[in-house]
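Practice problem 4.
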């Protein structure tokens, strides 16, 4: 898909960047793919299954990966609190509320300068298995510390 506008954002799918004014944000390729899929069907509900099949074609992923991609997209678009641009349709999917508009020709061919400050603030989402590993590690450390405390009584 060519460059396009959504509201005040200029979207550059090839470079995985979105920009508004002087602000430029680089987003992950899979998150951009979700964004492009939603833009191609703007105003329509795109099912979770459709998004997962189009973005993660030959890879088995859970809905958690899609949920995280939507979260990161909303964060990049500053749409976290209101969720007015990327709407959740419960038990059905997601919808991009605004239709994409063609990008002006002068911006479409000009590379977008990368803002160092925005790049520094970006975080790569944690892999799903890490979300499980961290709490499990904390539980294991707690059990180990409990054993250390219980096993070190001076009265024994």
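Answer key:
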């Amino acid at each position: 898909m060519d460059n396009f506008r959504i509201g005040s954002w200029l979207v550059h799918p090839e470079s995985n960047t979105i920009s508004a004014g002087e602000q430029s944000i680089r987003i992950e390729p899979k998150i951009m793919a979700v964004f492009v899929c939603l833009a191609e069907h703007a105003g329509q509900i795109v099912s979770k299954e459709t998004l997962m099949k189009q973005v993660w074609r030959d890879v088995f992923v859970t809905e958690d990966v899609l949920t995280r991609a939507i979260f990161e997209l909303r964060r990049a678009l500053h749409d976290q609190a209101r969720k007015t641009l990327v709407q959740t349709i419960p038990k059905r999917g997601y919808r991009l509320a605004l239709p994409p508009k063609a990008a002006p020709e002068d911006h479409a061919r000009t590379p977008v300068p990368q803002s160092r400050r925005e790049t520094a603030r970006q975080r790569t989402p944690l892999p799903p298995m890490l979300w499980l590993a961290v709490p499990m590690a904390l539980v294991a450390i707690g059990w180990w510390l409990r054993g250390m405390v219980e096993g070190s009584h001076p009265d024994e």
